[in-house]
Give the backbone structure.
Amino acid sequence: MHDAERISAKLGKFRPSLTLELKRLVGERMDAGLPVYDFGLGETKGDLAPHIREAGERAYREGRTMYGDPAGLAEVRDAVLAWLDLRGHYSIEDVVITTGAKQSLFNVFLAICNPADTVLFDAAPWVSYQPLAVASYATPIMVLPAAGDANRLKVTPADLRRNLRMRPHARLFLLNNPVNPTGQLYSVEEVEALLQVCVEARIYFVLDRLYWRIVFDGARFPEPRVDAETKPWLIQVDGMSKNFRRTGGLRIGWSVGPSDVTKAMVNLQSHYTSGPAIPTQHSAHAAIAEAYDPEMVRDLEAKRNLLRREAEGMAHVRVWPTPASFYSFWDVRPTFDKTTPGGDVLRTSDDVAAYLIREAGVVTASGAGFMQDGYLRISFATPDETIVAGVRAAKQALARLT
Ligand code: PLP
């Protein structure tokens, strides 16, 4: 057996998750005592809320550590329906609690795709969609906006229809709203139009709404229409990781969708995880059963504004507006073909990201990881001092390009 054959052809091609690679790079620079301004990771900082911590602690103390329902604890599933304001539309039989939103997405692909079915993603798909689809034997395809519209990576109904005509085996369209990495927010009309295309084509509309609480400027999250027409085709994925502080490591997510699909996912889950850890389910319950505290969202909005002010006048970069999420999206295509002080010519987002780390200690996520060479993702879920000093360092480094 050759070394290359020791791992399946399917998984052998995977690159490790981009975000973990960034963590490694940050660690390396810190070990070397060099300044690091970390805009790479997609996680809010701050303290875990005491009631979330205490619920987990109590579960341990009371010995709530035995196997539970593989679909998740009934009270957590019920709290999810309340959290999403879906109690009138679904029952707890339509909810699955999972090990992070990642597992919900994997459940979705595994439950509805046959080998060689196509799954359609939006134009800047989050890094793990593709590997999860491939691991489910589905073929991932990005829906590209019509030619010439690279300044707006939103998918329109016309884009989706065009792709569906080309892909008779399409099973689902996955929309992430708010969008990681672009920070864009599809409006309620845009969501409805895409949902309508899916319903008409009888494909699933999978909505990854993991950042849904983090919308700015007084806007509301655009809820998808839930009624008899849309319900058979609508699957919503959400979780604990982004809308609270310090909860990514709790590894709790959930999906809400049609009963038949949910049943298939629970069946599957009963064989491979038996549901997420019970104490963390209790923590999740404590988090979502209470009225949502918008403190973190206000804080992130102030950081968004700070970053926007600091980034004014930056050479060779166009900063996109950020109506939602905690990502600023930078169009760095104007840096291409420019020369660094060291004499290197920048040609890709990876080059620009590497230049910013080397020259300024500024860690970003290259658009290449999101299939969008030409952009950088900047996470502003980071201390204000990092935003001020980091953006200034990036500005100086960019000004040195010729
Ligand atoms: N979907 C999007 C858009 C994400 O950004 C992430 C995490 O970064 C996930 C899903 C996975 O979430 P989790 O960490 O809950 O598995």
Q: What stands out?
A: The chain has a mean pLDDT of 93.
